[in-house]
Amino acid sequence: MTTEALKDALHISDLRVWAHVGVLDHERRDGQWFSLDLSMWLDLDDAARNDDLSRSADYSLAVQAVQSLANSLQCQTIEHFSERVLALLEELYGPVPMRVLLRKCAAPIPGFGGTVAVERHRHWTV
Q1: DSSP-assigned letter for residue 55
Q2: Cα–Cα distance between 55 and 1 in angstroms, integer?
Q3: Alpha-carbon distances, residue 84 vs 64, 68, 69, 78 (angstroms)
Q4: 17 close to 67: Cβ distance less than 8 angstroms
Q5: What residues are annotated to the active site?
Q6: What CATH number has the domain spanning 4-122?
Q7: What is the pTM of this model?
Q8: Sequence ranges of the domains in the chain
């Protein structure tokens, strides 16, 4: 993919999903909220120029696939969760540059009110 083709990006922000992910038993048993930002760098010129949906990326597929993954996944680390999301995106859109920012909305750390996140990239050439 050329640098010129990387100027276009599709972003999905704050996709909230309930997943059974965490080191603690109750996190995997009961589940908790996660928030994802997904980005994919694609060539969207034809879609934009010609209003051609077939030349764009159907972002609803990504949303539905991540929701389905979150419903079925049970694992310990957000790193593994993010790896599974990247694999899903690659299955849907091919080997394009992509970024996932996965946030655990309420990490069970006493006295901590923030979020914990992992940022991962695949096919990152920029």
Answers
A1: G
A2: 16
A3: 14, 12, 8, 10
A4: yes
A5: 104
A6: 3.30.1130.10
A7: 0.89
A8: 4-122
β 74-75/32-41 pair status: unpaired
Residue 13 amino acid letter: S
CB distance 72 to 28 below 8 Å:
no
Give, for all 126 residues of the chain, the pLDDT tens digit.
Answer: 455 556 799 999 999 999 999 998 988 999 999 999 999 999 899 888 999 888 888 999 999 999 999 999 999 999 999 999 999 999 999 999 999 999 999 888 899 988 899 999 999 765
Sign of CA dihedral 72, 22, 17, 122: negative
What are the structure tokens assigned to 9, written together?
């990006």
- Closest to 95 in 3D by CA, of 57, 122, 59, 56: 122
